[in-house]
Amino acid sequence: xxxxxxxxxxxxxxxxxxxxxxxxxxxxxxxxxxxxxxxxxxxxxxxxxxxxxxxxxxxxxxxxxxxxxxxxxxxxxxxxxxxxxxxxxxxxxxxxxxxxxxxxxxxxxxxxxxxxxxxxxxxxxxxxxxxxxxxxxxxxxxxxxxxxxxxxxxxxxxx
Length: 159
What we know:
The protein is mainly beta. The chain is globular, with a radius of gyration of 16 Å.
């Protein structure tokens, strides 16, 4: 799931779970995924791991998955403060990305990152411009990255 949420509370330790912490959050909007997320009040994370997160109070865009009575941050997933996103990125989250809800986004850290199916776009986690693009299905039925007015030539990168 991808959510827009306010981190409203301080980090609290989870009893009986070594290095697992939770933050109180308020879901503003479910950007991708189940409406189940609207009932969630906590996000869990292990900041000791390679991709654990630490949240300050404020609004975030987060990729998460279901976990017990809350949601958990994804390993090396999306964690961005809303106020630090460009206007294009904010518009993509509000409008453009929902046009690609039937596409799957998979992460990779190497280059080139080539999709395994026509329903997949590869997100390079180390790419600073990645949120400027949207993964959308084109007229041929293939999910591809688009920047506001042009398609990214992924075929040239994967040859």
